[in-house]
Write a structure and sequence with these properties.
The complex is a heterodimer of chains A (about 110) and B (about 110). With about 110 residues, chain A is mainly β. Chain A has no helices and 12 strands. Chain B starts with a strand and ends with a strand. The chains are: A mainly beta (about 110), B mainly beta (about 110). At the A-B interface, strand 5 and strand 6 of A face strand 5 and strand 10 of B.
């Protein structure tokens, strides 16, 4: 069965520090991969997506993600975190016309 | 105006009551989805529809039903609400030409007492 794993439930990062959120997937073939962000009380906003081609994808708000087939990973990164990045982040994968979500990683930003 | 709207945004109901959550979209997408979000569990798919005549069960369809009234409208019903259906419900849409990128509504927060 398809699955998406986000190993970290919570992560705390100092403002200005770099960020990496981990995501691993288990699919029969390479799925389409997504990162969404959910700010408190809000819906989900698409940050970026990977379909094929260049394994480093750029998204909105200064985020990027790297697809590594050998590790079945699609980790999200940002070089310098801002207090407004505090939110919950969801990795998702699609291979059969529906999305499978990870359980989310809550990002806390300390001053 | 928002592309995907959900009504109501918040709802409190009692055990055993029937309740309907509605979703409308102006994106012109064929595909629509209903998810529920619970703390620590992420989003789980309840039902999805690829066109007006197509309805499919998702991971957690028990206790729910749906209706696709038109391309732009997809409703979720709880025939007899129970407390463990208290959750945040999201509607989403996608276009098969968009390689499954889904766009989400703002959510409906449901409390079943």
């Amino acid at each position: 069965a398809q699955s998406v794993t986000q190993p970290d439930i919570h992560i705390t990062v100092s403002e200005g520090a770099s960020l990496e959120l981990r995501c691993n997937y288990s699919y029969g073939a390479t799925p389409y991969l997504f990162w969404y962000v959910q700010s408190p009380g809000q819906g989900l906003q698409l940050l970026l997506k990977y379909f094929s081609g260049d394994t480093l994808v750029q998204g909105i708000k200064g985020f990027e993600a790297e697809f590594k087939r050998s590790q079945s990973s699609f980790n999200l990164r940002k070089p310098s975190v801002h207090w407004s990045d505090a939110a919950e982040y969801f990795c998702a994968a699609s291979g059969y016309s529906t999305l499978t979500f990870g359980k989310g990683t809550m990002l806390l930003v300390s001053p | 105006d928002a592309d995907v709207t959900q009504t109501p945004r918040n709802r409190i109901t009692k055990t055993g009551k029937r309740i309907m959550l509605e979703c409308s979209q102006t994106k012109g997408h064929d595909r629509m989805y209903w998810y529920r979000q619970d703390p620590g569990l992420g989003l789980r798919l309840i039902y999805y529809s690829f066109d007006v005549k197509d309805i499919n069960k998702g991971e957690i369809s028990d206790g729910y039903s749906v209706s696709r009234q038109a391309q732009a409208k997809f409703s979720l019903s709880l025939e007899s609400a129970i407390p463990n259906q208290t959750a945040l419900y999201f509607c989403a849409t996608s276009d098969y030409k968009g390689q499954e990128t889904q766009y989400f509504g703002p959510g409906t927060r449901l409390l079943v007492l």
